[in-house]
Structure prediction request, 145 residues.
Amino acid sequence: MARTSFLLASVLCGTASALCPIQNSTTVAVFKGTGAASDCVSWETHFWDWWGAANPGKLETVFLLNAQLQRECQLANYPNLRMYVQPGGNAYDQQHTGIKSTGKANILSFINKGKGHTYIGTCAGWFVTTKDYWWQGQHFRWVAA
Prediction:
């Protein structure tokens, strides 16, 4: 009853998006939080919908928001999750507001867990797995979690 009440309260208060949408059948997770450009997220959505339609029953994609990547969804804990995708956008906003160091640690844990885990970073999304990067003429270093 307490869990049901919490979920109902979360939905009514608009915080349900913080719950993890990854299911046992999920194979691909794509970030769509702060810093991910809307046109990049749109492209990723269309691409994964297309690929899923071409491979029925073999691909299930979910899109993750800031809190989901930072806290709610521990990517390495989902055995059927095979790929994490970081779209392009604003690298600074992705690092400091969207992903943060806890999200980066989550992604690296997923990648390092073992065979069959793939990371795809497109455009500004490549920087997530680096120690530092240049963005708009400035040098940035990741802060440890």
About this structure: The CA atoms of residues 75 and 102 lie 12 Å apart. The two ends are 35 Å apart (CA to CA).
